[in-house]
Amino acid sequence: MSLWTKAREMAELAPPERNRWVDFLRAVSILAVVFGHWLMAGLYVDSAGALQRGDLLETAQWTHWLTWAFQVMPVFFLVGGYSNSVSWEGTLRKAKPGQKGVYRDWLASRVQRLIAPTFPVLLVWAVIAVVLTQVGFDRAQIRMATEAALIPVWFLAVYLLVTACTPLAMKAWKRFGWLSFALYIPITALVDWLRFAHDVPYISFTNFLWVFLAIHQLGFAWREGKFESRPFALGWFVAALGVLIAVTVYGFYPVSMVSAPDGFSNSLPPTFALLALGAVQVGLVLALEPAGRRMLDKIGIWTATVLMNGMIMTVFLWHLTAFVLVMTLVWIALGGIGLDSVPGTSEWWTSRPLWLGIYIAALLPFIAIFAKYERSFGPIRGGRTVPAARVVAGVVLICIGLGCTAGITIASPEGITGLRIWVVALPFVGASLLGFGPLYKLVAGTKSG
């Protein structure tokens, strides 16, 4: 049976009350990130034959505006707020009075669905780093490759932390309503003020939590129908856009929501400007919801959405591996053919459709091999209640491991292995503390395939 046929069957079984716009936005937001990465990361071969890491945002200033469309991680957190509220309330309804471990089991399940597809990519790149080190490959090149391939996992670390806060965040929404969202606006602004005006170290990283918790709260508002009025959603969009323009075009923050030539990033770590962009995107996509849901009544479009959602984490986690593989093969095996144009030039833009097609073709084998890890899950062990301290410790270790993977990479400039083994190990240890075995997951996924 083909993947399309399976997706068609699943699409037809979807209950009529399901909000298909949620699934569509999840798929579109991840695909926007994928194509944005492929477009913005411009490797080229210089006149000396060396592979250089170009940046489209540095060579073409006007492309900074494109990041307002491609930096759509806030939309994923909006969808996450909606989905997590549905999942948590459903869990509470099914729980028996006095039942223990409800939060543990719920959180472990949510974590597992996100982290299980991550284990293969971590292990594959760990092996690559070790092998390339042993054969004498330049360690700086190994670091560049692992950094480029694995940097997307920063998002998972933040998303897991936000997901873990869902029960408390929902209580805050139920009690305080809009105030539970508005509270994050001055907090985010305060963090930026302390960062830029007073050079307070490391405080900027707390905005990973404040900015995305704020957008996550809007997912609760969406589910409760607060954006059902199209004039309200459009008004929200216009007001937020005004704020975004004020703080970027006429204010302190750069227009680019990814990075800028001076190294100022609105996303790593997030700033008040990214929160404003997230509010803009929320207003826009929810104003489009009625038309979008009518579009998704067409079985073909809905089937494509179901198909993409069934492999979305695989696409996200492996798309830069495919990119690195293509660039490496073209540089080493083909002598850099096709990589002689500097990003942003007319020749470079003309070749983009061809290169995007090549990246998609390179990604397909990874989807065929690894997408099964999104669909098969090992059991949570024992049925015993894991103490709250272990739950917290497990999530924290996973997030630290993923954060370090994106921030300092798994490749080590020293040592025999060329690998930061502790960075790779942390997510596995954290998952075990939560009560499910990642190695069992890998075996189960292989057998199910």
What do you see in this structure?
With 449 residues, the protein is mainly α. The chain has one domain (3-448). The protein has helices spanning 3-13, 20-40, 56-59, 67-70, 73-94, 102-115, 118-134, 139-150, 153-164, 166-176, 179-182, 184-198, 207-223, 230-248, 272-287, 289-295, 299-309, 312-332, 346-350, 352-370, 388-407, 421-434, 438-448, and strands spanning 41-45, 51-55. A two-stranded antiparallel sheet has the order 1-2.
Give short descriptive properties of this protein.
single chain; mainly alpha; two-stranded antiparallel sheet; 23 helices; globular; disordered C terminus
Radius of gyration, whole Å: 22 Å
Please identify the structural class as seen in this structure. Answer: mainly alpha
Average pLDDT number: 87
The number of distinct helices, counting runs of at least 4 residues, comes to: 23
Domain count: 1
Q: Percentage of helical residues?
A: 55-70%
Strand fraction: under 5%
Q: Largest sheet at a glance? A: 2 strands, antiparallel
Shape assignment: globular
> What is the string of helix and strand elements?
HHEEHHHHHHHHHHHHHHHHHHHHH
Q: Strand order across the biggest sheet?
A: 1-2
Q: Find the count of extended strands (DSSP E, 2+ residues).
A: 2
Calculate the terminal CA-CA distance, rounded to whole Å. Answer: 14 Å
- Report the uncertain regions: 376-383, 439-449
